[in-house]
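Provenance and format

Records in this collection were gathered into a single text stream. Each protein contributes a sequence line and a C-alpha cell line. The two records reproduced below are adjacent in the stream.
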Amino acid sequence: MLTQLQNLCPQEGDGNTTTVLDPYSFDQFDNNYFKNLLNGKGLLSSDQILFSSDEETTTSTTKQLVQYYSENERFFFMEFAYAMIKMGNINPLIGSEGEIRKSCRVINS
C-alpha cells in the first residue's frame, strides 16, 4: 500500500491528489474503515492511531470504539446518524464572525 501511495502522491507533487480512505469498499458506506484499522491498514497515520496507539487515554476510549464498530455495523450506523444530527444542529458563524478560507490549509491574510 505504501508503494502505491508513493506513486500516487510523489514528494514533488502539488499536494492536491486525492484517493479513497477505504480502498476495499470503494463507493459503499459500511464499517470496513474500522476493520481496516484492526488490520493495520488505515490510510492516514492519524486514523491508524485511533486503534494502535499505546497511550492510555487513547486505548481506553477510541481503541474500544474501533473494535466495537468493526464488529457491529448496525451500531456504527446508529452512532453515525446521531453524530450527523448533532453536527446538523451546529450553528455556523455568520457575517464577520468567521471567514471562508481561500485555501483550507492557511488562514486568509
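Adjacent record:
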Amino acid sequence: MSEVLFYHLEKKSLDDVLPELIERTLARNWRALVRTESAERAQALDNLLWTWSEESFLPHAQAGDGDPLKQPVLITVEEGNLNRADVLFLVGGRTPQSWDGETANFTRIVVVFDGRDEQALPGVRAAWTAARQSGHETTYWRQSAGGRWEKQA
C-alpha cells in the first residue's frame, strides 16, 4: 500500500507549495509525477517550475516532451506512471481512478487541494474515504496560521 498525504491549502497557493514539495521529493532521490486536471494547468505548472527559484533547479518536462523515463519530474493529465515515479502529486481536483489499482505503483501519493474551493471539497472527502477503505496509510496536513504544515489526522 502507498502512503497518502492530503495537503489542505489555506494560507498559500498551489504555486507556492508544489515546487517546495517537489524539491523535497527530489532531495530523497525520488521521481515525481504531477497529474493535473487540464492541459492549461499542466502548461502553467511547467512555466512555474522553470521560474520558481534562482537558487534551485527542478528538472522536469510535460508528457509528450521527449522520453518520459528520462524525466525526474513529469507533468501530465494522463493516467499511468509514465516516468516510473515514486511520488504521485494530484492537483486540480484529480484523484486516482481507483485506489486499488495504479496507486500500488507509488511509494507516496500527495493530494494537494485548495480548502477555499467549496466545489472541490466533496471530491477530496470522497478520495480520503476511498484511500482509507483501500488500506492506504493516510494523513491529513493543514497549514497553521504561520503557514507551517501541521498533521491533523
